[in-house]
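Forwarding the complex inputs:
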Amino acid sequence: MKIKQILLAARPKGLPVANNFETVDAILPELEEGEVMVKPLYFSVDPYMRGRMNDARSYIPPFQVGEPIESGGVAEVTHSKSTQFKTGDKVMSSGPRPFLPWATAAIFPAAHLRKIDDSIPLTYYLGLLGVPGLTAYFGLVDIGKPKAGETVVVSGAAGAVGIVVGQIARILGCRAVGIAGGAEKVRLLTDTFNFDAAIDYKGNHNMEAAIAAACPNGVDIYFDNVGGDISDAVIKHLNFFARVPLCGQIALYNSIEIPVGPRIQPIMVTRSILMQGFIIGNYASRFGEGFKQLSEWVKEGKIKYTETVEEGFDQLPAALLGLFSGRNSGKMVVKV
Amino acid sequence: MKIKQILLAARPKGLPVANNFETVDAILPELEEGEVMVKPLYFSVDPYMRGRMNDARSYIPPFQVGEPIESGGVAEVTHSKSTQFKTGDKVMSSGPRPFLPWATAAIFPAAHLRKIDDSIPLTYYLGLLGVPGLTAYFGLVDIGKPKAGETVVVSGAAGAVGIVVGQIARILGCRAVGIAGGAEKVRLLTDTFNFDAAIDYKGNHNMEAAIAAACPNGVDIYFDNVGGDISDAVIKHLNFFARVPLCGQIALYNSIEIPVGPRIQPIMVTRSILMQGFIIGNYASRFGEGFKQLSEWVKEGKIKYTETVEEGFDQLPAALLGLFSGRNSGKMVVKV
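Prediction (whole assembly, two chains):
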């Protein structure tokens, strides 16, 4: 069967551009016994994917030049030579690499797919109940260890992870302060997602003063999604015994040189600060716990969610690039 | 009674110099009921004291200009108007600030002194069984969480804390690699203190290659006493899930501007690294445990110790300044 694929055409230097991707025609082989053919319905695009475009040691192998990009996704079964799946089933990849290739159709061994409950909006599996929601949950609860009355600051607050971090902080009795870019996102945080305060880093030329005003008792937990100058400003306001779950550094992902900035170790010593990098895979054995807790909060109406949905298979590269210019509010997904 | 005191004459900018100190005559008042007069025997000089010379928020209040410097010390009771102490008793301060003023004699309320057992060398209370030994123990064991077979790198390895860190690492079945300045210190680490390997940062123009050679399986724990360029080189070799107890940043203590260096957050995210600043006061409730374990290891001959002893009350400022040029091997104390 003839399909379309989107390949990594060349590794980017710095910010990725359209030319780093190439759309090509390809042929899917005949389905063999025990295999299932799926048609992707939604793809997730995520900041961590920038790292996979480099040829560098990290927690997931890099994309290969000339091979399809892959990302999280939800698909529908179109042909099945397995007794476990039938046409119309909604599925996700549960293989050694839990991704779908950027293609209009793909073949998987049945053992590498899992069926999902389609009474829940399918995109939630990519967001609130998927990697971003679990990332917010474990980073905040396990590393941040929030105590009622503490102040939690989250950067990239209007992103897929950030909006969940702030809402969990509130559920646990903390003051939630979000940092995001632009007046519209800031309004979304306080009006829709119930943050106690939100700071527009694009509109504030004095971030330090803005943080001081929003955090009169200092910062006990800084959930860092962005890194760079924004984090420099927050770090100065960390309290003694503050915790910093390091989730992402999107401000730095496109750096060509090793970025430099103020050294943070001196303040970490004088204030007994803990900083811990993590990826969600570290918590794989506890996904059930996170999924259960998040689902409960959703059913109780305590957590809301927002998504930016782009449309069209051809829009996948543009949607990924859009993450780095802050085009999304909440989780960015592409309906294909 | 007429005594001598050493005051902070002016706050240093950058590296402290002799002019920042002033020796003056002073008069001690008459001893009152419940008070004890002591004559200091040994003073400790420690890198953290540089921080107290600044007028900055930290975990101990700053020294005041025109007031005596103070530091850890062991003293002998010369006059007592308390039933708890008699002339000749060896004591340490256990007051709200556990320090002795830099003076040839001082008066304390009896409640602010504790008697020490003088069958152990008195200087051990300032080193192996004092703050440096406890710092090594809790930083390595509680934050580093060493597992047998792992590689532990310690910077400032020939210092009062470092030599204990390396020896505890060996006791716990780890590979111990020390970084120190100069061929003599490096030899001391491997020959006397049994480190598996030691790196002379003054003799190595390619620290990264030296670390790679000394740590063929990468670095699992980096006990950081120094910060700066040396730490930059070690951090590149940290393994996934590495732990970094941040104990001191002596390379940066004399900085006037906020020091700048490579940002460490990106590598901390991709390798799930934990970094935690601490001061020994955080473990005050567990000092008994640390003291007991260290004493046992000393009695079993598993930990050795070395000291640099300077002589003379007038030499206190020079001894403190000497820490920043690496004049000491092991704990630096001044016999007065």
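DSSP finds nine helices and 18 strands in chain A.
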